[in-house]
Amino acid sequence: MNELEHPLERTQISEKDIFIKLLTSPREAFKFINDYKYEKHLYILLFLAGMDRTFDRASTKNMGDNYSIWTIIAICVIFGGFFGWITYYIYSALISWTGSWMNGKGNTQSVLRVFAYAFFPSIFILILLIPQIAIYGNELFKSDNDLYSLASMESIVLYVILFVEFALGIWSLILCVIGISEVQKLSIGKSILNLLLPAILFVFMILVLVLLFQVID
User: Fold this and answer.
1) Sorted alphabetically, which Pfam families does this protein's record hold (predicted)?
2) Residue 51: exposure state from Cβ atoms within 10 A (0-12, 13-18, ≥19)
């Protein structure tokens, strides 16, 4: 799209306000990102989102039982940051594909841009993770941690942080739905369905393979 053809649209949102718009007017922000293929912060955001996802997996997989805190940090930063974006790229390709079944628009790159900017709350989650690691260390990633039996004030602080992280996660999810709706020109309901379809297809394929192996045996 030639910017000279739509000078007024270009001035509706400035680049420095993109993140504020994601908070106050997300559909307008995603329209700007999609129309002008805005990718200034794309790879930094994907890097941080990959880190956040890997830290979360490190906690759920209880990696602290087998690795030191510095090893966990290195794994999350290096593998999560540098390779996590591959997962988002594959997921974006699937979203683009399944979206076409519902006459959705947008290619893989346009969907990837949505995810990158929708996951920007992960920056705040990572910021909140810093004091948690400083205070609790490896206990955050252990299966037998006693974080929930701490003194009352420490418990309150931990629960507040967890609540904020949960709220930021919900915020990211809402941004994903709105972004997919804008980029693929789908209703909110169809956008939610399209976000779920790749997982549904994956589970279906696993079930088919299991049934095939059972028949063969």
Assistant:
1) Yip1
2) buried
SS3 state at 149: helix
Contact 148, 159 (CB under 8 A): no
As for how many domains the chain has, the answer is 1
Residue 212: which domain range? 16-216
Burial 24-40 (b: 16+ CB within 10 A, else e): eebeebbbbbbeeebee
CA dihedral over 73, 125, 190, 187, signed as positive or negative: negative
Q: Give domain status of residue 3, yes or no.
A: no
37-46 tens-digit pLDDT: 998 889 899 9
Radius of gyration for the alpha carbons in the chain, expressed in angstroms and rounded: 20
Structure confidence by residue, pLDDT tens digits, 178-217: 999 999 999 999 999 999 998 898 888 888 888 888 777 6
